[in-house]
Structure prediction request, 105 residues.
Amino acid sequence: MKIVIQTPNIVAGDNLLAFVREKVSKLEGISDRLLEARVYLKLNKSDIRENKVCEIRGVIPGNDLFTERQAASFEEATLKAVEALRRQITDWKKKNEPRSIADQP
Prediction:
């Protein structure tokens, strides 16, 4: 799986980028159909403390899954977004995997 990380208008350190790659790469174990994960880390212009945003678009042939989470830190936002995308991939697999003959009534 290819992981693309973009950080418009912010300078992300190597530790943050490594953290994001590590967490997002775990999604590959859920489905081998996940070809690419595009991660966007950005700051939301607001007065609240929880202004760090992580968006993840999971590219699956014929389908893209998307999630966006906001938190007080990029690490926390990434963890929330990865968990949300993990649930989406699991739901997608349940709907799209071919059923075996034994599963049919």
About this structure: Residues 83 and 92 are 14 Å apart (CA to CA). Strands lie at 2-6, 36-43, 52-60, 63-71.
